[in-house]
Specification:
This protein has 13 helices and 18 strands. The chain is α/β, with parallel strands linked by helices and 377 residues long.
């Protein structure tokens, strides 16, 4: 079976290596440098291609049985649409701002299975919520998540596993959460709070637009929120950049030359935020689900702490994001999930066999979600 992976960045490369143990993998990217990182894996076919040329997808994907889209977020919606039009089953981790459910009718028409937002968050948090929503009356959902370098280097104390433009998008897109049954919109990076975590210590949590699809698929849950985690002080610096205009998409003129501040900012941040080879980092996530189960007040929590894998030289964010995605692709390949349409992870996780398969797949790769459950008598 042939699997095409669109994008050979850090996460795309990790997925290619993981899947190459079982499938014939074709890795596409416009960057020769990105592709060269996979050159030692003879069982992965490398192909340089401009993935923004969406009309070329039918030819590019002709030999593919399954597709993973790991393109930058600003390309994600059009890339997914092109894959669906090409009639290929697909799992997507591009995390684009548009509503993927708008492509549901197109996927059904083309008899395509498309699982979207299938990373760590959004992704695994949705899977967990989808499963527990089937077995209890959920009244509260909270996701706290972040990926951080172990070494804190001023001024940013942050490194990005993907392009800076996608991170800045998190910092600028208005954040939606659900409170008392109503969708509330707040500025990104607002309502900061300090929270203590085992293994890490105190981190700063702030609003980001991470609920995404569950606002629409889980409207019966009255309280839902997602916050991103950083080292304390990082967000204050980001707010300063934002207020100064560094994140603006509006062109300005300097010495008779016109440019967008956001383009310059991301170009400058690329080297500052880039993870160096072998640099240790970690992913931390806490999922809290509360409600009633069998008539009793029940609280369920999942905790993930995952580190850079020195043996395979794979970043934690690549592992936790990428392996969730490859697990979902295997669900499709093994015909364990066969429905046609666009499916965010909560609509996959609601099936017990899919939920258990994904958890087992991750555990086999040492990505472990530790569960605790408390029932009030």
């Amino acid at each position: 079976m042939n699997v095409a992976i669109l994008g050979a960045g850090m996460v795309g490369s990790a997925m290619a290596i993981d899947l190459s143990k079982k499938f014939n993998v074709i890795s596409f990217d416009i960057s020769e440098k990105n592709l060269s990182a996979l050159k030692d894996h003879s069982n992965i076919r490398l192909q340089q291609a401009d993935l923004s040329e969406y009309e070329s997808y039918p030819v590019l994907l002709k030999q593919a049985d399954l597709v993973i889209s790991a393109v930058p977020g600003f390309m994600g919606y059009k890339a997914l649409e092109a894959v669906i039009k090409a009639g290929k089953n697909v799992v997507d981790i591009s995390f684009f701002p548009e509503n993927s459910l708008e492509l549901d009718a197109l996927a059904k028409q083309n008899k395509v299975t498309a699982i979207v937002d299938c990373g760590v968050a959004p992704g695994m948090g949705n899977v967990l919520l989808g499963y527990h929503n089937e077995e209890m009356q959920v009244e509260y959902f909270e996701c706290l998540v972040g990926g951080l370098p172990k070494q804190r280097i001023k001024p940013y104390e942050y490194k990005a596993p993907f392009s800076p433009i996608d991170v800045v998008e998190e910092y600028t897109r208005p954040a939606r959460y659900v409170e008392n049954g109503h969708v509330v919109t707040r500025p990104a990076m607002s309502e900061t709070e300090l929270i203590d975590f085992e293994k890490v210590g105190t981190l700063e949590a702030f609003n980001t637009d991470g609920l995404r699809s569950i606002i629409y698929t889980m409207p019966h849950i009255p309280n839902m929120k997602e916050k991103t985690l950083r080292y304390p002080g990082h967000i204050e610096l980001m707010i300063a950049l934002q207020k100064t205009g560094f994140f603006s998409h509006d062109a300005i003129k300097v010495k008779d030359k016109e440019f967008k501040p956001i383009d310059v900012t991301c170009a400058l941040l690329f080297d500052k935020w880039k993870l160096n080879p072998g640099e240790e980092e970690f992913t931390i996530m806490r999922i809290n689900i509360g409600g009633k189960k069998d008539g009793k007040k029940t609280s369920i929590s999942y905790f993930l702490y995952d580190e850079y894998d020195a043996a395979t030289k794979t970043s934690s964010m690549s592992r936790t994001t990428g392996y969730t995605c490859t697990a979902a692709l295997n669900l499709i390949a093994e015909k364990l999930f066969t429905e046609h349409g666009v499916f965010p992870p909560e609509l996959v996780g609601r099936h017990k066999h899919c939920f258990e398969y994904i958890l087992k797949y991750l555990e086999e790769r040492n990505v472990v979600y530790r569960k605790t459950e408390r029932v009030d008598q």
